[in-house]
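Bit of a strange request maybe. I'm writing a small parser for structure token strings and I need a real example to test against, not something I typed by hand. Could someone generate the tokens for this chain?
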Amino acid sequence: MVHQESKVIYPELSYVITGVCFDVHNQIGRFAKEKHYADLLEDQLIERKIIYSREHIIPNTGDRIDFLIDEKIIVEIKAKTLIVKQDYYQT
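Reply from user aminoacidic:
Good idea to test on real output. This should exercise your parser:
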């Protein structure tokens, strides 16, 4: 079996975003609505002066993503007990 080293794309920004997401979850907890998580995430991004677009529309498809951060990283928020295939297809 060949082990392929996994690499994080945009590691510094990815780690900051991960930390922000954990902060949001720790503040709100497990049973909030998706909008509450998104609102607090937006507040945290503003506080940290991170460039983002909320409810960003993808050109040519009309698809909408929750956040596009620094024109590099997509953050799609799900507030549900089970993630299904359709959620992956959406992203």
